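Batch job 17 of 40 flagged for manual review because the log was empty.
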Amino acid sequence: MTQQYRVDSEVGTLRKVLVHRPDLSLRRLTPSNREELLFDDVLWVRKARGEHDKFVGHLERRGVEVFYLDDLLADVLKNPEARSFVIDKTVTRLTVGPALVKEFRAYLFEMEPRRLATILIGGLAREEIDESLFTKHSLTLTTMDATDFLLPPLPNSIFTRDQSSWIFNGVSLNPMYFEARQLEVVHVAAIYNWHPMFVDADFEFWYPDQDEQGRFVQEDWGRASLEGGDVMPIGNKTVLMGIGERTTGQMVERLAQSLFRHGAAERVIACVMSKDRAHMHLDTVFTMLDRDAVTVYPKVVDRTRAYSLRPTDKPGQMELTEEKSFLDAVADALKVPKLRVIGTGGDEYQAEREQWDDGNNLIAIEPGLVVAYSKNEYTNKRLRKAGIKVLTIDGSELGRGRGGGHCMTCPLLRDPI
């Protein structure tokens, strides 16, 4: 039987999901490198792993099939073609220097798949390699300190929502905004192209374009970028796309064109937010809870402008309409008279704290059932009062990465509403 992967809504019953358990990459975080690696603080990794295990437990107890990123990557690295693809994209003249490319690629190619997957995500420092295996003419290697990374750690891999976005019957491999995250996309690209789970599955690649062999074509995206926390297929052939700190209007247009060309979507609602670390993605201020219920951080959402893109009869051209308001556009797309809107809880000070702690970044397991961090007490109380069932995890360590349940999940299969 052909495997099925498609995501038809934000709240329909979740069937399959991709996650990444906190690992070596987070143990590489230090006060001196955390900003470069896009973290506000270092994490107590053992506790973060326990919190993540409880999060996954909530999903599995309700029938969700959970796949781990590192497991799938280790599987796919058994394939020599996939292994070459990942290594060639990771090890280049600009990352390790021209003198080291050939030897370092060969060194990684001979590595056992599980070990290779671990260091591709977790990083590899100079002191962890046997330098006698490499040329003495590498200026890059010679001038590195012992703790400098030949392969950088990718601690943001925990936020599997961002590297790829499943939209109806296809997936987008997202060009990430910051260099610190761009190699994450190489890993999911290899998984979707070569893992046995996906090889014979029936789905499309919305971005980037594919060559005749079905492999993605590298595109110089210039100033265009997109991350999955800004992408929400809400149903009725409509997709929400946020434009803010990490996603640009150029990429929203590019992805909308692809969806329209394939007949996958009939409307893309572009949501223009202010650019701020506190709300780096749309899903940090807005997520869906039920067929007609959403949680929002009003301070940002009330000022968010919305524009609807629709296909026209002329190839490549789109109709652009400014909406009365973002939430009105969402209600119209969902074909509900009015949304039930549950704002971040507490007074102005507490609401700002709970938004920062991902009080609005929730993952729906099914309509009206979500997972949240227990520390967002005021928001969770409001959700329950509105009839939403809220499962909680501690999240005191996981939340330091500025991501909640929505950020930590990449749905692979979800029912329509």
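Reviewer: the log was empty due to a logging misconfiguration, but the result itself is present. The longest strand covers residues 305-311. Unflagging and moving on to job 18.
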